[in-house]
Amino acid sequence: MSDTPEEPWRPEERSGAPERPGDPVPPGAPVPPEPAPLLPPAPPVSGGAPGNPYGPPASAPGSPGMSTGAGVGIGVGIGCGAMVLATVIGLVTLSAIATVLPGPIGFLWPFIAILVVGVVMMFSPRTRPIATGILIVTLVFSIVVIGPCVGLLSGEL
User: Fold this and answer.
1) How far apart are CA 91 and CA 105, in angstroms?
2) What is the mean pLDDT of residues 96-116?
3) Number of domains present in the structure of the chain
4) Which residue in 11, 42, 110, 139 could disulfide with 86, CB within 3.0 to 4.6 Å?
5) What residues form the membrane-spanning segments (predicted)?
6) What confidence tier does 85 reach under pLDDT thresholds 50, 70, 90?
7) Beta carbons within 10 angstroms of residue 3's beta carbon
């Protein structure tokens, strides 16, 4: 061992080293160390490896698709849009349907159609979370908006 401190490696001190990064290194020339990566390696996209904290375990139950909560959220969004559309359709077709379906049924037919579609969607396990969100919005809308409006318009309240 020598008493002089070791100098850090400098590229200009290399003799016979390539001028550009793509040039081959001649035999006997010192090889520079690999530079450290600027960022840590990215975690794997999908889990499944033992001890992998970034993904689901390899034996995750259910399908790898959307979760139940996401399906209910999507269903709530679809249900809200359907309620707005049903209100517009109910008001537009109220006078035309009143000759065939007297009373409040002429206004309520779009809401009943959405309710039937939600119930039919409940039979398929794939669409059940979306149907749950649609039915939640449909029933809340019927309790909060349609019930009092029909009661006021029919003279019951």
Assistant:
1) 12
2) 79
3) 1
4) 110
5) 72-101, 107-123, 130-153
6) very high
7) 4
